[in-house]
Amino acid sequence: MGTITVAMPQFELFIFVFLRMGALIAGLPVFGSRNIPILFRLGLAFAVAFLLLPLLGDVPTPPVNHPLALVMAAGAEILIGLVIGLTVRLFFSGIQLAGQMAGYQMGLALANVMDPNTSAQMPILSQFNNLIATLIFLSLNAHHWCLKAMIDSFHRIPIGGMSLHPELIRDLMDMGGQMFVVAVSLGAPVIVALLLVSVSLGLVARTVPQMNIFIVAMPLKIMVGLAFVGLCLPHLVNYLNALFTQLPQTLIRLMILMGG
Fold it and tell me: Helices in the chain by DSSP H: which ranges?
């Protein structure tokens, strides 16, 4: 009966690859959804790590001679995967925030649906933007870019060799601010249009006091808001294409900074 022998350095490399891949899948907006069972995500991370292992034969594994060193190395691998996954999630957060801002202006703040990614209540327009962004993300094969970035990360960031460079923290903070820039860029047309509608309704209320402006304002804002959402769909698609196209450069810069 045959036996399978696994060298300890190779087993350690597999564990670190599995931890990094598992953290990445948990952070990605599509694969990290709460609707996907945890066993499936663990199995996917295990399968990807198993397939990547032959490609990483020349990746050095530092000797781990102490339990504390093992814990620190494992924590560093998890942190690398989370940084890469959450970087992508920040893009989606900005897109959802744009829909939330426009929904408040339209008066749809109370019309919420269940978000499958977070199992939390989300405005309708936010969920609409999220679905459009997810379709574009998958149509561009951007999830393949994330997996490729994970493969490159083992060559750019050695096992247990992550460093918290000051520019890395600065870049992560800048991406957090960029989330609001994305939200304003996507929601500006609808927000400006509804602002003009509010100003016009204010002038009508001053000139025609007999009109019940509150009854007229609600359906009018919803109609104008939905009309501008439809008119801005080409802008939304083009903007998201350009946004996701910048993702590989962003991930490469983060990996260079994490590699010290």
Answer: 8-27, 38-52, 67-106, 124-139, 142-156, 166-207, 213-231, 233-245, 247-258
Residue 145 amino acid letter: W
Averaged pLDDT of the chain: 79
CA dist 16 → 53, 108, 236, 253 (Å) = 10, 46, 39, 22
Which residue type occupies 221? K
Cα pseudo-dihedral 109, 88, 138, 140, rounded to 10 = 120
Query: Across residues 220-232, what is the average pLDDT?
Result: 85
Note the pLDDT tens digit of each residue in 92-105.
Answer: 888 888 888 887 77
Q: Is 140 helix (H, G, I), strand (E, B) or coil?
A: coil
Return d(Cα 2, Cα 166) in angstroms, integer: 52
Could you tell me if residue 77 is inside a domain?
A: yes
Q: Is residue 2 part of a domain?
A: no
> Is 35 a domain residue?
yes
CA-wise closest residue to 247 among 32, 29, 88, 27: 88
Four-CA torsion 106, 112, 115, 119, nearest 10 degrees: 140
Which letter does DSSP use for residue 159 in this model? T
The pLDDT value given to residue 67: 72
pLDDT digits over 45-80, tens only? Answer: 888 888 887 777 666 666 666 677 777 878 888 888
Question: Do the beta carbons of residue 260 and residue 163 sit within 8 Å?
Answer: yes
| Rounded-to-integer distance, Cα 96 and Cα 234, Å | 17
Whole-angstrom Cα distance, residue 228 to residue 222? Answer: 10
Domain-embedded: residue 1: no
Domain assignment of residue 122, given as a range: 8-258
Task: Give how many domains the chain has, as a whole number.
Answer: 1
Q: What is the H or E stretch that residue 114 is in?
A: strand 112-114
